[in-house]
Amino acid sequence: MKRIAIIGTTGCGKTTLAAEVSQILGVVHVELDALNWQPGCTMVPNEVLRQKVSAAVNEPAWVTDGNYRSVRDLVWERADCLVWLNYRLNIVLRRLLGRTMKRITSGQPCCNGNRESLRKAFSRDSIILWALKTHGRLRREYSLHLQQHAQQGKTIVIHRSPKATRAWLDNLRSACGVSQR
To answer: How far is Cα 33 from Cα 15, in angstroms, rounded to an integer?
Structure first.
């Protein structure tokens, strides 16, 4: 595994897992949110995002995290392993609410210095609402797309619980000779 794409619903832990995997493997971590979101919570134009992602995944080894349909073709086609954090909605919402509240109370920024707020957390642009809207759709889409990629010979890893993800990560550490945390 040299090129790994970590996918899943907003708030499931993609970025955290990608950072750990990139550290274990000693490869670059490509956070798609950081390429897409500019300061002031503005998105880059789609063409710019595609250029940035294309350059990043043209490298020989990397770990990405993110769900952008507009660059899925670039990332998934180049990846040799797709890891899906296919957690139940209640797990995702619990994690997402915890992360959002932590960022709000601590002032901890997310990508590119952007900050979450209580007002935004419960607005129409809410990341929580986004998770509710996209969870079921992504599960349906990923099931179909991942079958196709498996038929192309790519490694497909599906985790249905954080416990399964931790076990996989521990196995990866062992296989790479990296000590446990």
So the answer is: 9
Main-chain dihedrals φ then ψ at residue 81, nearest 5 degrees: -145, 130
pLDDT tens digits, the chain, 181 residues: what are they? Answer: 899 999 999 999 999 999 999 999 999 999 999 999 999 889 999 999 999 999 999 999 999 999 999 999 999 999 999 999 999 999 999 999 998 999 889 988 888 888 888 888 878 888 899 999 999 999 999 999 999 999 999 999 999 999 999 999 999 999 998 877 6
CA distance 120 to 100: 10
Cα separation, 42 vs 6, whole angstroms: 23
CA 11/CA 96 separation, integer angstroms: 5
At the topology level, CATH places domain 3-88+136-175 in: Rossmann fold (3.40.50)
What are the φ and ψ backbone dihedral angles of 6, each rounded to 5 degrees?
-105, 125
Give the integer Cα–Cα distance in Å for 2 and 23. 13
The model carries a pTM of 0.92
Selection from 39, 58, 38 nearest residue 49 by Cα: 38
Q: How long, in residues, is the chain?
A: 181
